[in-house]
Amino acid sequence: MRRYGLSDGQWERIKDFLPGREGHVGGTAADNCLFVEAVLYRYRAGIPWRDLPVRFGYWKNVHRRLRRWCESGVTERIFRHPAADHDNEYMMIDSTIVRAHQHSAGARKKGGADQAIGRSRGGLTTKIHAIVDAAGKAVALFLTPGQRADITEAEPLLDEADPAAFIADKAYDADPLIEKLEERQITPVIPSKKNRICPRKIRFSIYKKRNIIERFFARLRQFRGIATRCDRMKSTFLAVVQLVAAILGLN
């Protein structure tokens, strides 16, 4: 396997979800595998689109094709495929902040669209929220501006998961979330904040598994184009995060 390339096993598991595949209605795409590897190369190396090696084709065509896949939901379908085969024993939620490069600013806000770029202590930032299963596979992903509190995206993301136990740190210790988990008969494994009058007891043997999501974020941030966001459009950046998370889930 070439550096930054897909293994044969990874390609076999995603190729049937791509447009333009052989036997698919419509035109046949020119080497879908090469295109996916071009996107992975660009974000793993963290280079500008114009610096994409010529073996991947004209950089503008690659970028244009990524935008088409993004708008038509192709990357989301790729992400949903491995995510559907998840472990329900326990799941965990957390978020990570990535720096937004100055080139990521200035996108046109069509209809007041939020591009998930905010200003926090580190300057312009984007926050990636994720739910991960016991095997370290991403089940749900979302982006918000960097200053947004972690708890705000917990309930929407939880709608896409149904674990027996739900692990989170103290930032997610809030009565509405705890009540929703208990209504769905999901065991909350969330330490109580110091100001909680009646601290809850949790199983720390399960809580210590939370390092799985930290390792997931560490692997995700090995892609320099994700660790530092240069994309102006929220939809483009989310599509790439979904694609990379899907590939990581296939390892």
Automatic annotation (TrEMBL):
PANTHER family: BLL5188 PROTEIN (PTHR46637:SF1), TIS1421-TRANSPOSASE PROTEIN A (PTHR46637). It comes from the Bacteria. Residues 6-79 form the Insertion element IS402-like domain. The lineage of its organism: Bacteria, Pseudomonadati, Pseudomonadota, Alphaproteobacteria, Acetobacterales. InterPro entries: IS402-like_dom, Transposase_11, Transposase_6_like. It holds the Pfam family DUF4096. Residues 92-247 form the Transposase IS4-like domain. It comes from Acetobacter musti. This is IS5 family transposase. Coiled coil: none annotated.
